[in-house]
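Lecture notes, continued. The same structure-token format from the folding unit now serves as the input rather than the output. Read the line below as a description of shape only.
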């Protein structure tokens, strides 16, 4: 059975600083790795930890057919430990390092003027970053424009992508727990799912996109606007018609773009009463 050999760029995280050992070719491992170069691969990362998805099937020696799911290889020797996690958009702060407990929720605010931005937020009495029974809301006046919205950082997430192949990005929403009350598949159309790609920027000092491909090769596919559109099975939401990586570079982030997504709760309103909703979204990669 073929074995992947890693003898190129090595990244080590020490005390929050990134130490980089550059091989003589002065290129990232994405430029040098045989299987990525010959068969194609996709890399997803959060700025610290990296996962690889291959078109080469190491178990059989074949390749993933067009439309087939790429082979995840998460036990790689890249910098960092643990899985790749979405980050809060515009930062490299892990978005899910903590999650609400059974009696908690992400913080939702009150939009009083209809612009989609919270004008009133709960007072987080215990400063735990989640909505729970100890929190309270100051009085406010109800109008026709009053609505529930997500707090600024509660629903905006991102991760970084690079590739040496064209591919599809898929998303699948799943309910966690029983399908009852608010936690019901037929209510997922109340949660907007908005997404896009940022091609270049700097997040917490990490520059990305300078050596990523430009042009109209990233396209939306399907008709996805809320979580009901991606519920129950992997749904193609974007296609990348060319490799993201454009040329050799010293580091992987410069060969990456950032995928951004936002949850919107505009379909819920105060007249619906109280309830519980818990869901997850899994993103995956398919050969194009």
């Amino acid at each position: 059975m073929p074995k992947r050999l890693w003898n190129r760029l090595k990244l080590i995280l020490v005390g929050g600083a990134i130490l980089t050992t550059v091989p003589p070719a002065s290129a990232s491992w994405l430029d040098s790795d045989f299987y990525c170069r010959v068969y194609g691969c996709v890399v997803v990362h959060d700025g610290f930890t990296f996962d690889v998805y291959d078109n080469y099937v190491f178990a059989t020696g074949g390749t993933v057919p067009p439309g087939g799911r790429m082979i995840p290889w998460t036990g790689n020797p890249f910098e960092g430990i643990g899985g790749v996690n979405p980050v809060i958009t515009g930062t490299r702060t892990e978005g899910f390092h903590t999650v609400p407990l059974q009696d908690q929720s992400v913080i939702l605010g009150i939009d009083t003027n209809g612009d989609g931005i919270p004008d009133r937020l709960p007072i987080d009495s215990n400063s735990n970053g989640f909505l729970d029974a100890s929190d309270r809301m100051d009085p406010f006046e109800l109008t026709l424009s009053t609505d529930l919205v997500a707090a600024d950082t509660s629903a905006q997430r991102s991760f970084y992508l690079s590739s040496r192949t064209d591919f599809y990005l898929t998303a699948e929403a799943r309910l966690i727990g029983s399908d009852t009350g608010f936690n019901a598949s037929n209510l997922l159309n109340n949660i907007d799912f908005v997404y896009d790609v940022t091609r270049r920027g700097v997040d917490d000092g990490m520059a990305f996109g300078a050596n990523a491909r430009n042009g109209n090769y990233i396209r939306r596919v399907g008709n996805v606007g809320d979580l009901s559109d991606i519920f129950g099975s992997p749904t193609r939401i974007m296609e990348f018609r060319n490799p993201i990586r454009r040329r050799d570079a010293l580091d992987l982030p410069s060969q990456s773009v950032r995928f951004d997504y936002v949850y919107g709760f505009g379909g819920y309103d105060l007249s619906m009463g109280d309830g519980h909703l818990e869901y997850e979204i899994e993103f995956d990669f398919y050969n194009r």
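Point for the exam: The two ends are 26 Å apart (CA to CA).
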